[in-house]
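Q: Here's a chain of 326 amino acids. Please give me its 3D structure as tokens.
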Amino acid sequence: MRPIFLGISAAFFFAFTFILNQAMDISGGSWIWSASLRYIFMIPFLICIVALRGNLKGVFKELKASPGSWLLWSFVGFGLFYTPLCFAAAYSPGWLIAGTWQITIISGTLLTPLFFETVHTGHGPLKVRGKIPYKGLIMSLIILLGIILMQLEHSKHVSLNNILLGVIPVLIASFAYPLGNRKMMDNCMGRLDAYQRVLGMTLASLPVWILLSIYGLFSVGMPSVSQTLQSGLVAICSGVIATVLFFKATDLVRGNMQRLASVEATQSMEVLFTLIGELIFLSIPNPSVLSWFGMFVVIIGMVLHSYMTQITKKKQFLENKRNVRA
């Protein structure tokens, strides 16, 4: 249950991303600065945290050992994740983006065959290719059904152009985030803790944010003081706290793709936290009864997903053990 709790806590702080990005867009801020400033501001905070824990040297050692992998998968996991989300904020409200983002539950599950998981047998640990947990996938579809119900009424008032520009970037991000995260977990092989890995990926993705900032400087000019402060808040709440909590949760289930998919499913809570935040701080209209019912479906879907994942995990272990003996 600890990984699940950490995942839900991460979802709470991740919700600040959608709420504040929407607030910045409403006030006229550019998505370019919303994306780049978050990760630039994250660096000093993360360096202080890792340094105080006495683990800074290990980060630079890993970066030096395989710079190509760090640059590639940090670009995928952070660059192709956050830039599209910020871009989408210009075309959809925060809670709608948070709802669409839950497709990452499906995306993360579909990525399972690309990785190997550790199975402990009577002959010792064995690496086997992950299999898509179809029962868990069905539970994920229930979660997505709840998300659709929450978006249904709002979608009637959104143009097709805004739907595409608000949805397609989020779909790209939904695959990029779990892919980059998992690849870096494999690359680190448990040598770095969650704080170190977040710092390493942030530093490795820095070229992306520098180039984006240069583009923003010439295309939209300098960011306002308000956007700079809000981006700093996103960096702390979402970039540092939420990311570390989520990476810690995934570290606890590293090597088991089914449990990893269950942790990633907790991120469906983001839409609930985002909607509540926008109701309080951005004074959006109260959701309909259908939307509230959708939230209830999401919660039920999460519980069922977690339950089925545990059952599937036990059956898969027994099956792999029989196959090894054979």
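Q: Can you summarize the key feature?
A: The mean pLDDT is 84.
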